[in-house]
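F.,

This is the one I mentioned.
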């Protein structure tokens, strides 16, 4: 008997019981048995526009596979999303940084020593910031002091001073991006609640601004708008309805991610970002550690291999150096979504499907297009998708970045080299 007929029979049995033509006990027992035998309907994606090829169908099938098995599984399957340019268009860290500069919300370092804001800041950058920005003030007047605003913007945005000197050095390129970390570190002196209020103000402005808007920061014009992807909001809700435990992992400061994640139904307890240490309730310029990296060492954030570590530690409860390693399949996410090389490690760890929004990032697209195990899904960005990359991705030569920052070939698990890949989904 199919589900529809079985449901009709159960309803009829209950109706007969109500008239007295069938003993109530038999009718209720039959109805209960039929209801228990019939699985609850599994949810499917409601938004169809923007999905490439059979991506939507494959995601629906994955959700159905796990939804139908949810009563026997014993624990929820995990789905993990990157945030910036994966769930939303543009970057919430950038949006918050621009708001801080426009509203005089960055505190100067103690004694004007900019080297205290990041252990990876070069002496040249510390000197340039010290020359451009005043000391002896409670907050930097970056709304009007364009020299200070421009220097901060250059160091954060390009990793170099306005004079062209390298701003950060001496870090593991697979575990740390000091430009991203610096935004969290520049929140020093504020409480987590205050940092969240700054992010909320930036969020309101960027959602209200028209698509394509820019804003003035220092002497520069920068991006002034952000949008949630309707497709990703729908996907997150569908995964949750299908019994998945859904998380966000981002290389933006965690108080910022918490504010934005609520817009897609993700509770702050399920959002991971760069975490500051605190001192008497206020954020410091030092960062929480993961795996074998201790708090305050400032050597690993939610970036490439660091994302793997934080996922293993915070979602799956793996402690110590083991969190830095790939876990058995039962302790890994089933679904993952990302858009950049910063996401490659946790995407590769996913055991079911790996959704990639194509932003022409070399290592990520090399692995996604090769699709060695058939689990990669490539989709154009849902807003302002990239045009086709005219040249092949340099997978066989320079597509991969080593811990010391040098470029090399993208390799498979067995050490063989991934051949160059053409851009086909755009």
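My design for it:
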């Amino acid at each position: 008997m199919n589900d529809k007929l079985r449901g009709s029979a159960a309803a009829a049995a209950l109706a007969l019981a109500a008239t007295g033509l069938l003993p109530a006990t038999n009718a209720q027992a039959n109805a209960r048995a039929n209801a228990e035998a019939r699985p609850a309907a599994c949810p499917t994606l409601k938004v169809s526009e923007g999905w490439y090829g059979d991506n939507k169908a494959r995601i629906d099938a994955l959700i159905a596979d796990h939804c139908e098995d949810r009563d026997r599984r014993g624990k929820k399957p995990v789905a993990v999303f990157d945030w910036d340019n994966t769930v939303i268009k543009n970057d919430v860290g950038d949006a918050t940084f621009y708001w801080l500069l426009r509203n005089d919300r960055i505190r100067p370092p103690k004694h004007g020593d900019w080297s205290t804001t990041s252990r990876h800041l070069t002496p040249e950058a510390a000197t340039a910031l010290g020359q451009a920005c005043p000391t002896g003030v409670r907050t930097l007047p970056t709304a009007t002091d364009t020299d200070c605003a421009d220097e901060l913007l250059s160091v954060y945005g390009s990793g170099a001073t306005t004079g062209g000197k390298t701003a950060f050095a001496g870090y593991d390129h697979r575990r740390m991006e000091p430009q991203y970390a610096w935004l969290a570190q520049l929140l020093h002196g504020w409480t987590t609640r205050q940092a969240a209020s700054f992010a909320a103000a930036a969020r309101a402005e960027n959602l209200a601004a028209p698509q394509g808007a820019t804003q003035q920061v220092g002497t520069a014009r920068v991006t002034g708008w952000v949008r949630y992807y309707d497709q990703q909001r729908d996907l997150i809700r569908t995964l949750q309805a299908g019994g998945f435990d859904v998380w966000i992992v981002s290389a933006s400061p965690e108080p910022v991610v918490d504010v934005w994640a609520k817009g897609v139904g993700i509770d702050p307890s399920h959002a991971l970002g760069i975490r500051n240490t605190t001192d008497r309730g206020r954020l410091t310029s030092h960062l929480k550690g993961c795996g074998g990296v201790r708090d305050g060492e400032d050597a690993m954030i939610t970036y490439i291999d660091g994302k793997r570590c934080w996922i293993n530690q915070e979602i799956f409860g793996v402690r110590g150096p083991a969190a830095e390693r790939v876990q058995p399949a039962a302790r890994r996410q089933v679904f993952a979504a990302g858009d950049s090389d910063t996401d490659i490690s946790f995407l590769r760890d996913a055991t079911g499907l790996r959704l990639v929004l194509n932003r022409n990032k070399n290592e990520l697209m090399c692995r996604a297009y090769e699709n060695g195990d058939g689990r990669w899904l490539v989709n154009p960005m849902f807003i302002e998708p990239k045009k086709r990359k005219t040249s092949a991705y340099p997978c066989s030569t320079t597509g991969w970045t080593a811990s010391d920052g040098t470029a090399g070939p993208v390799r498979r698990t067995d050490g063989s080299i991934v051949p160059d890949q053409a851009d086909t989904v755009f």
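The two ends are 45 Å apart (CA to CA).

Talk soon.
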